[in-house]
Amino acid sequence: MLPLLTPIELERYHRQIMLPGLGEMGQRRLKNTTALVTGVGGLGGTAALYLAVAGVGRLILVRGGNLQRDDLNRQILMTDDWVGKPRVFKAQETLAHLNPDIQIEAVCEYVNADNIDSLVQRADIALDCAFDFKERDLLNATCVRWGKPMVEAAMNDMDAYLTTIVPGQTPCLACIFPEKPDWDRWGFGVLGAVSGTLACLAALEAIKLVTGLGEPLLGKLLTMDLARAEFAKRRAYHDPNCPVCGTFKQESSRPYCLSQRIR
Count of alpha carbons within 13 Å of 50, Cβ hemisphere only? Predict the structure, then answer.
């Protein structure tokens, strides 16, 4: 049974409830959803912000390390007085001030083999915003193992890509990138508006998948050259022999719809 909306929530989300295809039922699905966001920085933090203000009922924010001053050009949940402190706790604090009606858990760790199964099992959907492919591959494999959908978003300089992965229905990250891009874990330049653009689209993908609004990027890879404002949507290759998802058995032949599973 989906939770009812309080009078305050009905007021807070009134403008998005007006959207055809979302409505009060979609808002109740958002309230009943737990979203895992990994890599809570310029990309993950901004995505988490839009999930929070949209009314996703519970957020699990995962990011190790302390805030550095050169993070502040893009990590919009942070403030200058927090430099040198664990950034994920500041993200939790900022989001709680923005929307006190949701639950926010902060995990001050990087994604690793010891914590990933517990994190994914507690979530309905994951947003992969990590800064390296070691974490990305680990989250991808775990989401496939537990049959959880994952929004995959990554950027490098002025380029970005986005897709939504549903185990058993779409290619997984290992299908799409069997060879990993040669991205420097720390060293690439980044403009806050670029990470913010991608983060908004990633949050929108998650909201669409939860509520049934619109059409998520299932089996399609959106690539973005934001220096030229060029966007392309490409069909992603689904490798039947993929070492990660090739043996995954879908529960049924019916199309996946997270909105029908969140009740």
Answer: 20
Query: DSSP 3-state assignment of 40?
Result: coil
| Residues 6+ positions from 104 with CB-CB distance below 8 Å | 52, 58, 59, 61, 92, 95, 96
- Residues linked to residue 257 through DSSP beta bridges, in sequence order: none
Helical H runs in the chain? 7-12, 14-17, 23-31, 44-54, 87-98, 116-121, 133-146, 173-176, 192-211, 258-261
Task: Tell me how far CA of residue 254 lies from CA of 29, 132, 168, 245, in angstroms.
Answer: 20, 34, 11, 18
Q: What is the pTM of this model?
A: 0.94
Tokens of 21: 């295809």
Q: Residue 189, Cβ neighbours under 10 Å: how many?
A: 8
Q: Which residue has the tokens 């989401």?
A: 143
Residues 233 and 247: their CA atoms lie apart, in Å, by 27
Residue 8 structure tokens: 């305050």
Tens of pLDDT along 65-114?
Answer: 999 999 999 999 999 999 999 999 999 999 999 999 999 999 999 999 99
- Provide the percentage of residues in the chain whose pLDDT is more than 90: 86
Comparing CA positions, the residue from 194, 220, 63 lying closest to residue 127 is 63
Residue 142 tokens, joined: 């775990």
